[in-house]
Backbone:
């Protein structure tokens, strides 16, 4: 057993197998609570506890999976499509009878990003469904789904019920978006976060730090010296995106609707003086 678990392939194989079982269970039961990722996590923890396998042994392979996931997440999370690209994508979808769904979790930050030429009317004209993200701009819960394709509207209410998403107090969800979309508040919150992220980005540029991915939204992906990150421990919160070389690590710094100017200025000074 020790020889098996000491191999990096053990962590990879266990993760893939656990997730595959989770997918099978969800398809078999059709229950939304049977999320494959949650099932996989429970199965992995169960196997490690049952066979007394150290987490470090599992993470030898798990770390390899994360090494590939982090850059992919970075690239997918920061993409901003131009109007021409969005129109071309939707044209292909219509040509081949495909639906185009636009993830709007960070919609406010994308719409307000420097260089963006897509607004809500353009977005609505070039997809079948999109949603207006609420939780990332201060809403307590929920997102507002906007269905443009008439074919998809009649049955949507029943899909909500079948998946356990129908709220008895749905008006509480609606009130949040009624207020967020009033007087340009939604866009202003996005503009605020993007502007502060821009200050961090400029500080990194002025210091000469390169970027894993360059973008103009509320996320910044600098490649930082490990010695600087060590000094930041316990002071600043960031997400590791992956090792670049023996002495540098790509990280993600993220601003939000509630990020304060004062805190960003503190971080900017740290970057400049690092």
Residues:
């Amino acid at each position: 057993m020790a020889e098996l678990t000491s191999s990096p392939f053990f962590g990879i194989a266990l993760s893939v197998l656990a997730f595959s079982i989770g997918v099978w269970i969800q398809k078999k039961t059709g229950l939304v609570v049977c999320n494959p990722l949650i099932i996989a996590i429970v199965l992995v923890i169960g196997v490690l506890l049952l066979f007394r396998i150290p987490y470090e042994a599992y993470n030898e392979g798990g770390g390899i999976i994360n090494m590939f996931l982090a850059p992919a997440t970075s690239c997918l999370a920061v993409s901003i499509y131009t109007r021409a690209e969005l129109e071309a994508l939707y044209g292909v979808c219509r040509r081949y009878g495909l639906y185009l769904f636009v993830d709007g979790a960070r919609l406010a930050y994308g719409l307000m990003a420097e260089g963006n030429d897509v607004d809500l009317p353009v977005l609505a004209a070039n997809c079948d469904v999109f949603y207006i993200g609420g939780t990332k701009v201060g809403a307590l819960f929920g997102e507002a789904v906007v269905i443009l394709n008439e074919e998809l509207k009649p049955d949507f209410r029943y899909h909500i019920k079948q998946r356990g998403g129908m709220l008895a107090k749905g008006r509480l969800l609606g009130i949040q978006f009624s207020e967020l979309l009033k007087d340009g508040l939604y866009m202003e919150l996005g503009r605020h976060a993007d502007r502060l992220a821009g200050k961090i980005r400029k500080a990194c540029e002025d210091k000469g730090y390169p970027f894993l991915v360059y973008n103009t939204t509320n996320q910044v992906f600098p490649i930082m010296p490990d010695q600087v990150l060590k000094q930041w421990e316990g002071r600043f919160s960031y997400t590791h995106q992956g090792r670049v070389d023996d002495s540098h690590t790509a990280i993600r710094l993220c601003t939000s609707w509630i990020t304060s100017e004062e805190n960003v200025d503190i971080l900017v000074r740290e970057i400049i003086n690092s």
